[in-house]
Amino acid sequence: MKTTRLIRVNIVFAISFCTVFILMFSSCKELYPITKTAEGYTFEIDENQNATLIKNDILAETIEIPSEISSYKVKKLSCVEEAALVGVSLTGVFEGNNVVKEIIIPEGVVETYGPAIANCYNLEKITIPGTMTTFDVVRCDNLKEVNIVDGDTITESFSFSDCSGLEEIYLPKQINKISTNAFARCYSLKNVKFSKNVYCIESVAFQGCTSLTNIDLPDKLSEIGSNAFQCCTSLQTIDVPSKVRIIESWTFDGCKSLEIVNLPEDLIKIGDGAFRDCVSLERINVYDECDYIADNAFEGCDKLTIYGIKGSYVEQYANEHNIPFEELDTTYEPTD
Question: Is residue 205 scored above 90 in pLDDT?
Fold first, then answer.
């Protein structure tokens, strides 16, 4: 009798425990991201019910990415993350796809992450919507045509680095900053049309663009980062806009064809190696606002004559560094 009663108690306890467990589990929120597969893509769903594409199984020369997949809005292009010996390895959604020649990204997509579009060696054309805040298309050697749609969403960062076949590009109004490494080692790049809104060119932005012969910088530009045009060996002329106050370190280092540089009158500083090994540079005007020039700023510029204001710091610098100096038309008048 006691045994029967004990069994009944245990059964009641087990049923109660299971009921509580089921109720607790059913009340828990679903854990995100949720991974799904459909329409040739593997994607993750976030808590806002938006999709991030992480893997593509479509092999076609033209891929038009859907704006929605299984009723979820596509917002990002990203990578599959896998454990590695050290940290995590990332494989981009289109990384290493050597079949695709054209990728069309729809309006509504806001960013790419990591190597989402990388090493697509046969990619020739890409369309980027005006809704994107961040995008990288890197190491795509045959990319020649980039269509960035005009938009109202400010692009925070972007890169086409190591796209060695890219020859020209138009940057629309939402791009007001040229990001670090944006066009680094784009060896075929010859023509860049800036948005008039560009105020900053970050470091290494055009490093190694060996086909770039001249470039029209926008009037609003006020910052040019270090190494920005380093080793642009075909660059012949540069007009630095009036709002730029500093030529940072190594900005034009190794620009062996550079002959003409027009600096603004309000420039105050020329940093380390800024014009180092500009072996063709014969003349540069530096005005009396400038009160610092690094010792090696013009190292290797054996043809150079500095033109400046007589009696200024610039004349003193030229004399101390055995650089020929010629007087500009105006006479220097010290300020209090």
Answer: yes
